[in-house]
Amino acid sequence: MIVCSCNVLSDQDVRTACQAEARPRSTGQVYGCLGCSAQCGRCARTIRKIMDEALDAAEAATACNGCAVHPKP
Ligand code: FES
Fold it and tell me: Which of 14, 68, 39, 23 is nearest to 3 (CA)?
């Protein structure tokens, strides 16, 4: 699904950018990773939401599996 019509970025493009080794921490860094920059800015909230989901998933995937600091739910 296209989430940024100005730059024709899809939700998958944003997820892919979030999987880069140097994970983007801002929407501006996501645009930069994808070789563009914000134009109208209407997509910023959507991109932020996708980023948060992707980064949470990446963090969960690398978390330990039930130590004293990170007990299993
Ligand atoms: S819709 Fe993304 S910058 Fe305009």
Answer: 14
Alpha-carbon Rg for the chain, nearest whole angstrom, is 14
In DSSP terms, which residues pair with 9 in a beta bridge? Answer: 4
CA of 11 to the centre of ligand 1 (A): 13
pLDDT digits (tens, 9 = 90+) for 31-69: 999 999 999 999 999 999 999 999 888 777 776 666 665
**H or E element in which residue 4 lies:** strand 2-4
Helix (H, G, I), strand (E, B) or coil at 10: strand
Give the predicted TM-score (pTM) of the model.
Answer: 0.80
Q: Which residue has the least CA distance to atom 2 on ligand 1? A: 4
Q: Which two tokens stand for residue 13?
A: 């493009």
